[in-house]
Each structure stands twice: as C-alpha cells, then as structure tokens.
Amino acid sequence: MSELPILIVDDEEHTRLGLATTIEQLGFGATTACAGLGEARAALAGQEFALVLLDLHLGDGSGEDLLAELSANRPELPVVVVTGSHELATAVRCLRARAIDYLVKPVDPAALEGALRRVLDRRELERENRALSPRGGGDAPSHPEAFAGLITLDPAMLRLMVYAEVVAPGRQAVLVTGETGTGKELMARAIHRLSRRSGRFVAVNAAGLDDEMLSDALFGHRRGAYTGAAGERAGLVAEAEDGTLFLDEIGDLSAAAQVKLLRLLQEGEYYPLGADRPLRSSARIVAATHRDLAAAVKGGGFRQDLYYRLHAHHLHLPPLRERTGDIPALVHHFAAEAAADLGLPVPPVGAQALREARARPWPGNVRELAAAVHEAVGRGGGGALAFSARNEAAAPPASEAAFPEVLPTLDEMRDRLVAEALRRTGGNLPEAARLLGISRWGLSKRLRQGGDGAQPGCAPQLR
Fold first, then answer.
1. Which of 38, 52, 238, 380 has a CA-to-CA distance to 262 between 20 and 30 Å?
2. Do 298 and 410 lie in a common domain?
C-alpha cells in the first residue's frame, strides 16, 4: 500500500472510476482523479503523489504536454501512461520522455498491478538510499526508544538499527537472521513500531508446525474445511491486517508451506482452508531464522524465489561473541531486571564477574547471558553477582568430557547429543533441534532412523 495517493488523469469518467476501483481492490491505497490537464496541474501543485496514471488524449490538451512538464520539473515523480493508442511511435516518444511504463486500454488488472508494484518498489528503494546515504552508516538511530530490549553500543548493531529505521515504513518483506538468542524478535518488533502501521504485531513460530497446522494458523478455515471445523476461524494473517506478521524460524517451513507463503508475498493474497476465493492481505511480512537460507537454497531445502522475496531487506544480527563490549551493560541490565523480578536488592557487579562474563563463549548469545545472570542473582540472594558460584565440582574438565578414555563412535555420540538435547528441553522437538543446530525435520528424521540414545523406558515424551 502506498502512503501517498495515486493521481489518475483521464477524461473518461468510467475509466477513472474503473482504475480507482481496481487500485483500491489491489491494495495500493487512495487515488485522486482528474478529468483534464487543468485539474491535474492544480492537484499536482497542491499535494504530493506516489505516481501518475496519465491518459494521452484529454479534453483540454495532450497528456504528452503534462508528461514533458513532469519530466523537466518533477523527475522524481513516476508517470505510467494509460492510453488507447497502439502506435509504436507514440509509445517510444513517451518512454523517451521518461514515462516509467506504457499500458494500452482496456488495461488488464494483472498488467496494472505489475506496473504499480514495479514503480512503487523502485520508489521505495530510492527513498531508502536517500535516507541512508547522508548518514554514512555510522550514526545512532534517531528513535532509540523503538529498540527497547536491544541494549547495545556496538557500532555494527547501531548501523543495523539505522537501517531498520530506514526500511521500516516500507511495504517489502524484511528478513532478520542470526544465531539463537541474538534478539531477532526484538528487532522485528522495533521495525513494527517504526513502521507506524495501525494494525497489530502478530508473531507465529513456524518450527514444529506441519503444512496443515501452519496453513490453518496463518490463513484460517471455513466451516467444514476438515473434520472438526464446526465454524469459521480467521487466521493470523487476518489478525495482522494493516500491521506486521512476524514469521519466526522461517527456515523450517515445509515445501508446501513455502509455496503458500510465496503466494502471500507475491500476490498479497491467500486462501483460507476450504475457501474457493482468495482474500487480500495488507500485512507486512517480517521473517526470522537462525539457518543459512542461502545454503539451504543451494541444497534444495528452500525455494529460491521465496528467498529472494524475503531478502528484499536483510538484517543479520551479530552473535554476542562479536560484540563483547556490550556484555557489561547487558549484565547490569539483567541483574537489575532479575532483582526486581525476585524482590531482591540489585546486586553489586564486580570486575571479576564481568571478566568471567566476557570470557565465556555464550553459544546461546544474549538469551543465555540473561538466563545466567537471573540464575546468579537468585543464587546470590542479594549478594554480589558471581557466575563462578555455580556448583561445578562434579563436572569433569572440558578436555576429559570431550575426549574420554574410550572414544564413542560418531553414531553413538550423535545419539548421546540428541538424547541430551531432548532431556534438556523436556522432549520439545523444535527447542531440541535449535540446541543441536539442525532443523526440526532433520531431528525427526534422525529419531526415525535411529534411537534417541535414551535407555528403554526413559525416553522423554516428545512434543
């Protein structure tokens, strides 16, 4: 949807009405209609427009005259010629006069939609480039309050925040990548706040949902769509109308679900289960994953066309080990947060605690650090924060744990890792898959092909 209206200039009333109706149905926003050159010049002098749809044969003159004026005085304003003339020479003249596109009446709605999307997408990218170029990529964000929870002074993170501010008002999809615990959902929420969209932020985790479950959750269903569907239910896409739909763990989508998501991104429409007519969506898509989608595309596990659609804007959040300068501020923040939650005084954070925090690898990133600080505050009971207070006397040295005297086989080691991941997550497959760095489908395949490494009768209940 365009933030600015689209100006329609045509002397035929039925054409003006038809174009305005089609544009509204396609979800491109408001229109202003003018019957001739005089009205159009007055409208252009009084307000801004996203683009102009211009007929060439007008009652008070030629549309080519207005095209020449706009080319000379308003080169940033795109013009799409919509005319009944099939003459090649006319089309060439208009395109040389900097018309963006040339459509012949009667205009096919699909051709109109394609032209509008190309023009508005290009205009949006030009706006983003203008917004980014004077900042030099190194400034702090103009609206730091939008990034609540993303505590950082790291230059790379600040540059990402600046970029997020620039792309947030747009319509194109945003892909947020990074390891587990780096703050992908926090960044997605920041983009929603900065977009100033009137609708809600609606989040859904794609991991662990099969095609039917995901389709029902996203698109809803009609009565009788399947056994047990006693009534209609609107899906999350409908709930995100005029807002943001956040799709977490997008890399775990099945092939069938990827096709449906591609249609939503490409056409802006979707089918509820059991429906024979599509519904349109104005929700903006923000997706996140810890997986390397480019590698998944090469390996055939992720659609290339969907990847390109999601990759219109890409923010990769660095792991905590690459922004260790933020660790002291994060430790102080989480210590105060934990103390408030537990009803304890805020503990002193000494130099030794900070040295320990900075020395750890934190594979779970900021989320793992937050959990460790909360645990340390609770264990300390209001005393000084100390990570080393954890009882680790019974744990073997790292080298001994990694290389016991009798080495297990690779298959045995895999089974032990799977069993430990399932134990730690209480049998939650998506969470266990994250700990292991594989997809849920990969973990399910591993469990089908071999054991889970647990003793008979002791395997956790999968969920």
1. 52
2. no
**Same domain? 385 vs 404:** no
Q: What is the bridge-based pairing of β-strands 313-316 and 174-177?
A: parallel
Instruction: Express each pLDDT in 229-262 by its tens digit.
Output: 777 888 899 999 999 999 999 998 888 888 888 8
The label of the residue with tokens 């991941």 reads 421
Alpha helices in 1-62 (DSSP H): 13-25, 37-46
Rounded to whole angstroms, the Cα distance separating 56 from 11 reads 10
What tokens does 265 get?
């991104």
Measured CA to CA, the distance from residue 57 to residue 62 in angstroms comes to 5
Q: Which helix (H) or strand (E) holds 268?
A: none
Same domain, 348 and 259: no
Does residue 121 sit in the same domain as residue 270?
no
**391 pLDDT exceeds 70?**
no
CATH of residue 158: 3.40.50.300
Q: Report yes or no on 411 lying in a domain.
A: yes
Q: Give residue 106's pLDDT.
A: 85
Count of other CB atoms within 10 angstroms of residue 418:
23
Q: Are residues 361 and 414 in the same domain?
A: no
pLDDT-based confidence at 120, cuts 50/70/90?
confident
With 0-12 / 13-18 / 19 or more C-beta atoms within 10 angstroms meaning exposed / middle / buried, residue 207 is: buried
